[in-house]
Amino acid sequence: MNVKNAKWFGLAAIGLAAATSSPAQTWRQVGPPGGTVISLEADAHNIKKIYLGTSDGHVFFSNDEGAHWQLLSRIGTGQDDVITHILVDPRDANRLYASTWTLYSGGGGVYRSDDAGHSWKVIGLAHETVRALAQAPTNPKILLAGSLTGVYRSMDNGDTWELITPAKHEDLRNFDSVAFDPRDENVIYAGTYHLPWKTTNGGKDWFPIQKGMIDDSDVMSIVIDPANPENVHATACSGIYHSVNAAQTWTKYKGIPFVFRRTQ
Known about the structure:
The chain is mostly beta strands. It is 0% helix and 44% strand.
């Protein structure tokens, strides 16, 4: 969905209840009202705690799996900060990270909260369009951020950042997703507006991994099975893809109607 053209409305996006009379599923609104929901993140140590980020910079919190919500804070100085990702640090539930980009005001960047989302400060990539954020499972001090200008890495909890893709590369730009291999922080996947890429040596070398994927696919998310890193999923503007060999080849899931193929 193009956020620029999105209508501002309260989104019902969470609650799922199994229907008893038919195999269909029934959705119910659980809130909160105000803004398009862009990002969701649960505390890995207490999955009842959920953080939600909107397309106008609001951060909401629920401590009962989405039954009730409270507005915690707003990220950014304007009303056009799109919160693309929220991460809860597995070492400290009070530490959160967020990535943002702005529609009009030229803001954006990576933010950190040390008080469970009540206040935020920008810690890097200020004024960058940061559309992706990830934390290394093997070493939580390491963070990745994907922006329009490349993939950036922090080795020190976000205090400093370095570009790990070639500067001004024709294809390694306009990043929409990043992901760490769950067993090796040097193995990184990244999706662009065009196609996915991979590095196995911490960003020294990158190679395309598009075999089986429709050309010119905006790769909006990459998910790696923590129990089996060979098992990888990717969502794209052309549909949902699955790989069983660490993204050497992809297979597209069939049966998704054409009008709904753009899966975020």
